[in-house]
Amino acid sequence: MTSLWADEGIYYPIDFEPYTPAHHFEKGEKDPGFARNSRWHCISQRAVQAAIPFRAIVADTFYGEDRSLRKAFRALHKAYVLALKPSHDWWHAEGTPGLLVVAQR
User: Fold this and answer.
1) CA-CA distances (angstroms) from residue 64 to 27, 67, 82?
2) What is the distance between the alpha carbons of residues 3 and 17, in angstroms, rounded to a whole number?
3) Three-class DSSP labels, the chain
4) Residues 91-102: pLDDT tens digits?
5) pLDDT for residue 37 is more than 60
6) pLDDT by residue (tens digit) across 72-87?
7) Cα separation of 44 and 63, whole Å?
């Protein structure tokens, strides 16, 4: 996983954590050494500690549905966008938009 600086004029990597697939660990995803989400949090935390200005954290569907990761990102007090799998089911309060298409009307 990587951390990078991106704006309208530049796209530049600034940090990374190597990814080792779960099957390389004795207990797979349950192995404490795997901890993929804590690596994401470490990268974000290092950016905050280094005073690297950023507005949001963006992650793909590999991380998008992890509740503990969302909680960690909220603790950083930064905006985040996490992609969800097409099969993801979610709820919304009655009378509020449930789809982006509806919210844009």
Assistant:
1) 23, 8, 4
2) 9
3) CEEEEECCCCEEEEEECCCCCHHHCCCHHHCCCCCHHHHHHHHHHHHHHCCCCCCEEEECHHHHCCHHHHHHHHHCCCEEEECCCCCCCCCCCCCCCCCHHHHCC
4) 677 777 666 556
5) no
6) 888 888 888 888 777 7
7) 14
d(CA 2, CA 18): 8
**C-alpha–C-alpha distance, residues 73 and 56, integer Å:** 10
pTM of this prediction? 0.55
Per-residue tokens: 1 = 């996983």
Q: Identify the CA nearest to 80 among candidates 58, 60, 99, 64.
A: 58
How far is residue 15 from each of residues 2, 11, 55, 72, 101, measured CA to CA in Å? Answer: 6, 13, 16, 18, 35
